[in-house]
Amino acid sequence: MKILVTGGAGFIGSNFIHFILGTYPKDEVINLDLLTYASNLENLAVWKDDPRYRFVKGSITDAALVEPLVAECDAIVHFAAESHVDRSILDPSAFIETNVRGTYVLLEAAKKHGKRFHHVSTDEVFGSLGLDDAPFNERTPYDPRSPYSASKASSDHLVRAYFHTYNLPVTISNCSNNYGPYACPEKFIPLIITNLFEGKKVPVYGDGMQVRDWLYVSDHCRAIDLVLRQGKIGETYCVGGNGERPNIWIVKQLLSALGKDESSIEYVKDRAGHDRRYAIDFSKIERELGWRPSVTLEEGLKNTVAWFKENEVWWKNMKSGEYEKYYEKQYQKR
Ligand SMILES: NC(=O)c1ccc[n+]([C@@H]2O[C@H](COP(=O)([O-])OP(=O)(O)OC[C@H]3O[C@@H](n4cnc5c(N)ncnc54)[C@H](O)[C@@H]3O)[C@@H](O)[C@H]2O)c1
Fold it and tell me: Using CA positions, which residue lies closest to atom 42 of ligand 1?
């Protein structure tokens, strides 16, 4: 299979390309990526001379660029997005442009050439759960609450509309929070790990009791691949990690793994409209496609700490320049 991966120089996209090229010797990948602050082509350096891999720099909003790439592939796996909630609160414009209009441009090209389309989405489209509510599943009504989740919800609706209206062979996956190698250090787990490596404090929003489900990125890539090859056309699959924990639990776990104490915690002003809890019921993908997460949270955190320890140059580069200015603006003291 020849796959057009959008956003393949970002966190999950890079892991997915490693998974595909490492698992299927006959598969080919074209990676279309705009190379925003969240990307790093170094993630894929091992493939750069492999004839099965090609990188194209550009935006998914550029129809003239996108169309011939779609035409030469069998399937599109769509990761490209502005993905950071905090940035969407500071300025939603790029989120609307890439996540909504970019998805529309890709869908139009897929429709023109009748191509298989898999859309990677988030559990944040479902809104926020109370502590006693049942986890999200494929039938949970949409209730996005940040500009990021609203833009992802819009793109999900567009993808479904192209299935119902034009019979486009689509699938969607909505997953929980990912963590693991190549995660941009502005995200929660890598931010904590790298701040602790640097001897800095770790910012914790509000009381730290927001609950998230954590999904190790290789488990997520395996789920996307299964849905791509065996998922039922027109269907949505929820993908969770069986790793529901309050943020403060994660922080304390990482403090102890890195030999630090709670004096490293700095409580900061809570995020506007901060969702309290996300949790995922992944029984559909388990029942229909035989997928379940294989990496426990404890094991995944250990692997992630080890990866960041071994890749100091990588994360120091990611944290330099534009990132510093963003960090100062974002984490005001409470
Ligand atoms: N990270 C998570 O925990 C998580 C959870 C649920 C869903 N998702 C979804 O998974 C997908 C990938 O997330 P991620 O964490 O890897 O994101 P990321 O921010 O690490 O990577 C996004 C990639 O998209 C590229 N990109 C941005 N705008 C583009 C454009 N206009 N054209 C082409 N490329 C563009 C960036 O350069 C970057 O390489 C996103 O759609 C996100 O909404 C992520």
Answer: 83
Cα distance between residue 35 and residue 40, in whole Å: 7
Taking the C-alpha atoms of residue 117 and residue 166, their distance in angstroms, rounded to an integer, is: 13
For each of the domains in the chain, give its residue range(s) and CATH number, in order of start: 2-179+215-239 (3.40.50.720)
Residue type at 183 in one-letter notation: A
pLDDT band with cut points at 50, 70 and 90 for residue 103: very high
Q: Identify the residues whose C-beta falls under 6 Å from ligand 1.
A: 6-7, 9-13, 32-36, 38-39, 59-61, 79-83, 98, 102, 120, 122, 152, 175, 177-178, 184
Question: Could you report the per-residue pLDDT of 311-333, keeping only the tens digit for each?
Answer: 999 999 999 866 666 666 676 54
Residues annotated as catalytic (active site), given as ranges: 123-124, 148
Whether residue 216 contacts residue 179, with contact meaning beta carbons closer than 8 Å, is answered with yes
Residue given tokens 């120091």 in the structure block? 316
Distance 120 CA to ligand 1 centre (A): 9
Residue with tokens 């970019």: 102
